Amino acid sequence: MRVFLSAFLLFVVACMPAPAQSVPAQDLRFAVGSVERRAVVVNQAPEGQLRPAVLVLHGGRGSADQQRARTGFDAVAQREGFTVVYPEGTALGMGGHAWNTGYLLRKQVGEVDDVAYLDTLIDLLVRQHRVDPKRVYMTGGSNGAMMTFVYAVKRTEKLAAIVPIVGAMFTFDEKPTAPLPVLMINGAKDNEVPLEGGMSRNRIVSGAQGAPFKSLAETIDFWVKANRSEPKASVVVTGGYSTSTHAATPGGAPTVSIVDSAGGHGWPGGKSNRAENTPIQSFQGAEKVWEFVKVHRRP
């Protein structure tokens, strides 16, 4: 078990207590089948109003509270007037949690149905927490990004846009049921989830993989076709990162990829866990996510 837990070095998070937050939060507890699950809701809309919601999934061995503390989303949500929600995966002990993507750490997450969990959470947010069902967005880092990909393919109709960060897909067997705006953010120096795909260059992590990662190039091609995006991308270089945009065709959705030339594995703007793997420092992840998703809504 210790060896497999060590594999979570892949997924960004150190088990540190979250500092006090200034924005009020609500701790949600609800059943998914026979299992009690949890999420944290911040900046809920006042009575009589609806707000968009951004669901922010933690990385492996993370938690809702740690993701809240590290991403800076609370301040952006309060300033911009949206609700931010921090879902929480399956408990692994020592305060850590992970998501069941089907292809990673199978001995730890078992057969937990995280698609059903996210279904239940989104429905609860819409029914009881004044979330606009046409403006539900999802992002996540690493293992959370992988779960974002999985959920977006299986439940396209529940989301308005997604932003997977330093993550990858494992399979292209299923296709989204409709175009869905997507922004992928990756670091060129990420040795945990490398751009070229395959097995992680972290030996312990690769030992926990049930399938190789798909490459970023393959994943962009998958979404360009699913989204009916323009085949040719426009590329803009800003400082140390490049943004490749496959614009939406009529009835389609944009497919966008940001690659930071110096970025390693971690939440953009966050601190490094190891000297050789510094996260993207060119921008703050929460700001970039909201900048992309805020213009999109479900038809």
Report on this structure.
The chain has 299 residues and is of the alpha/beta class. The protein has 9 helices and 12 strands. A hairpin with a 2-residue loop joins strand 10 (234-238) and strand 11 (241-246). The chain is globular. The N and C termini lie far apart (46 Å). 48% of the residues are buried.
SSE series = HEEEHHEEEHHEHEEHHEEEH
Tell me which CATH architecture applies here. Answer: 3-Layer(aba) Sandwich
Distance between the termini: 46 Å
Number of domains: 1
What do we call the CATH topology? Answer: Rossmann fold
Q: Which percent range fits the helix content?
A: 25-40%
Strand coverage percent: 15-25%
CATH class call: Alpha Beta
Class based on secondary structure composition and strand pairing:
alpha/beta
Q: Which stretches are poorly predicted, pLDDT < 50 over at least 5 residues?
A: 1-20
Whole-angstrom Rg: 18 Å
The largest β sheet comes out as: 10 strands, mixed
What's the helix and strand layout?
Blueprint (H helix, E strand, L loop, with lengths): L1 H5 L18 E8 L2 E8 L8 E7 L6 H8 L1 H8 L2 E5 L2 E4 L2 E3 L7 H4 L4 H15 L2 E11 L1 H12 L6 E5 L16 E6 L15 H6 L7 H12 L6 E5 L2 E6 L8 E6 L24 H9 L6
Parallel strand pairs: 3-4, 3-7, 7-8, 8-9, 9-12
Antiparallel strand pairs: 1-2, 2-4, 5-6, 10-11, 11-12
